[in-house]
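Design job #97: recover the sequence.
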């Protein structure tokens, strides 16, 4: 049986690590993987965890390949292995689940296809493949504040080739993280397949931020989109999300991101936020406290 709750903190510009996730898993001696390749950075970081409580991950080797038409798989980077703090990840799961961060010091290309191969002593080798979406542009972001302080938002963007869907969120321009699910401090995020979003941002969410506020749109490959939008983690019979890791659990996906400000003239500049987000600080979902600077 596996219990899964994913609290994924999307990074705004200036924070280089991919995620803040919670995964509590138990089962055979496999590896659980979470990775999101990003062409905006000069390195890629992938988190691996033991699937069984109390399990220890032994010596780990990881390699990243680019699949080049006409040439096949070309090795482009070997992983440096460290504990999960190198990934900039705060796991809310039990500390009894051992974890490692795989650091690949290489920049990837939009539109290219990549495969990881990971081997750990005493465990099955795992692999996963993903294709990186093509960059895109936000064409319009409009916001209108209602009398109660909530905000009607409309956003439109160009289509990203190789993407399957989009994740839209809001956050402060300061660079603090924006959270994905209702267990996290900043719970406004939308998954859409189209290139347009019209929605209402509640005043309880808007009150978390100081103006100015910006919109983040992320184009996700299918593996990452499916992983984040499927499965359920509660109850006696949890349903795992769709996964693409062969020989283990989890996901290797890819995204490209772009940002645009909400129209500042539509939002009350004098509005006093209920909780001010400190620039460059990241807050713990469990304790509701600031946990330290964005890595």
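Job complete. Output follows.
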């Amino acid at each position: 049986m596996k219990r899964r709750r994913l609290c994924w903190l999307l990074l705004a510009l200036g924070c280089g690590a991919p995620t803040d996730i919670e995964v509590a898993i138990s089962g055979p001696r496999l590896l659980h993987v979470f990775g999101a390749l990003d062409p905006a950075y000069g390195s890629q970081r992938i988190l691996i965890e033991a699937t069984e409580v109390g399990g220890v991950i032994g010596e780990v080797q990881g390699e990243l390949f680019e699949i080049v038409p006409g040439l096949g798989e070309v090795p482009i980077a070997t992983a440096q292995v460290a504990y999960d703090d190198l990934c900039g990840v705060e796991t809310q799961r039990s500390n009894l689940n051992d974890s490692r961060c795989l650091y690949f010091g290489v920049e990837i290309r939009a539109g290219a296809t990549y495969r990881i191969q990971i081997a750990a002593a005493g465990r099955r080798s795992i692999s996963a493949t993903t294709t990186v979406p093509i960059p895109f542009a936000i064409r319009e972001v409009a916001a209108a504040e209602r009398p109660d302080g909530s905000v009607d938002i409309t956003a439109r963007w160009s289509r990203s080739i190789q993407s399957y869907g989009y994740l839209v969120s809001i956050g402060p321009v300061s660079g603090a993280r924006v959270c994905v699910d209702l267990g996290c401090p900043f719970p406004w995020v939308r998954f859409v397949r189209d290139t347009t979003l019209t929605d209402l941002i509640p005043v309880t969410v808007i009150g978390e931020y100081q103006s100015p506020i910006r919109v983040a749109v992320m184009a996700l490959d299918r593996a990452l989109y499916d992983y984040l939008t499927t499965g359920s983690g509660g109850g006696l019979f949890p349903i795992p999300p769709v996964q693409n890791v062969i020989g283990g659990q989890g996901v290797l996906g890819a995204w490209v991101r772009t940002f645009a400000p909400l129209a500042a003239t539509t939002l009350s500049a004098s509005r006093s936020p209920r909780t001010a987000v400190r620039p460059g600080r990241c807050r713990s979902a469990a304790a509701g406290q600031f946990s330290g600077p964005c890595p």
